[in-house]
């Protein structure tokens, strides 16, 4: 069965990450023509090699601690920290402590 995504006007609670962390469950919350919002759950020690998104993006740390590398530097994201990347900027991350990130992609779909 396909996951239901929030529709315009739907309420989504992003703060309840306890169950998501316990089950290591990432989820796409919103998917529309030009935006996608998902919660990415990572276990400590997870290493995501350099990659890029299909558009501009924001990454908001909800829980945990993540080293985020882009633009030839690494910054540590803690709860409440947000980083913005322009269109298709290569980035990588390393999860220091079990974490939940809220990622918003601004897509250029035709």
From TrEMBL:
Entry keyword set: DNA-binding
Domain (AraC-type arabinose-binding/dimerisation) ranges: 47-93
Residues annotated as transmembrane: none
Signal sequence, start to end: none
Pfam hit, one: AraC_binding
One of the GO biological process terms: regulation of DNA-templated transcription
InterPro entries reported in the protein's UniProt record: AraC-bd (IPR003313), RmlC-like_jellyroll (IPR014710), RmlC_Cupin_sf (IPR011051)
Molecular function terms from GO: DNA binding
Protein's name according to its UniProt entry: AraC-type arabinose-binding/dimerisation domain-containing protein
Provenance organism: Candidatus Accumulibacter aalborgensis
Organism lineage: Bacteria, Pseudomonadati, Pseudomonadota, Betaproteobacteria, Candidatus Accumulibacter
């Amino acid at each position: 069965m396909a996951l239901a995504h929030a529709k315009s006007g739907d309420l989504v609670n992003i703060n309840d990450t306890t169950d998501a962390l316990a089950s290591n469950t990432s989820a796409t919350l919103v998917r529309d023509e030009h935006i996608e919002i998902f919660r990415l759950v990572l276990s400590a020690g997870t290493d995501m090699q350099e990659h890029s998104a299909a558009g501009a993006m924001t990454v908001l740390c909800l829980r945990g601690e993540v080293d985020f590398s882009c633009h030839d530097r690494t910054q540590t994201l803690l709860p409440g920290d947000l980083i913005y990347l322009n269109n298709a900027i290569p980035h990588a991350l390393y999860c220091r402590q079990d974490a939940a990130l809220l990622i918003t992609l601004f897509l250029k779909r035709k």
